[in-house]
Amino acid sequence: MTTTVDRTAPRDLAREVPARLSLTPKTALAGQLDGAWWPHSRDLAAELPPLAAALAEPWGRITRVTVNPTHWPVVPRMVAVDGRTLHVGWFTEQDPDKLILLSYAIGRWDLLVIPPETAPAAAARLMAAAAIPGSVLTAGVLMANEAAIGRGIRDTARREAAWEGEGGACMSPFGAPMGRSALPLSANGRR
After folding, report:
1. Cβ(81)–Cβ(71) below 8 Å
2. DSSP-based three-state secondary structure for 150
3. How far apart are CA 136 and CA 7, in angstroms?
4. pLDDT digits (tens, 9 = 90+) for 114-139
5. What is the 8-class DSSP label of residue 115?
6. Sign of CA dihedral 89, 93, 97, 100
7. In 3-state terms, what secondary structure has residue 33?
């Protein structure tokens, strides 16, 4: 069976790939962030339409977006979204891990931007942390915390792999592996 794909036809990514979002619940507690966004790529022109479509219901029509260009190879000035134009700006002073969304009628929202290559478990932790109402943690702090957690997880996995590589052997007080025959017997006579 042969399938033909027309790569010249415009694609509606908002319908094809939904935005991965975690938003802060409506509350009187104002925090540093209003949630998190985990894009599928670093292509803003492709990623912003699904984001704007996903936010149309809870937040209304998004008219402007600002980013720090550090993590975005190309920052388009305008992106077409549902037959209208979404204006995109960039500021090097803005936190590189944050996206700012603006609407004339509704206001401003700040989202943590989780890098597309982030592992799903790490992205889930970041999305949950960014959606805590009233949190004083900034996007940069959340990303630094996750980097530290990731290092801890990798170190633990490396130690477990070393343990398994040694056959799960116990270490003597002198740092040398001890075989099972060196272990004391339990009360029932088993090792």
Report:
1. no
2. helix
3. 45
4. 999 999 999 999 999 999 998 999 99
5. -
6. negative
7. coil
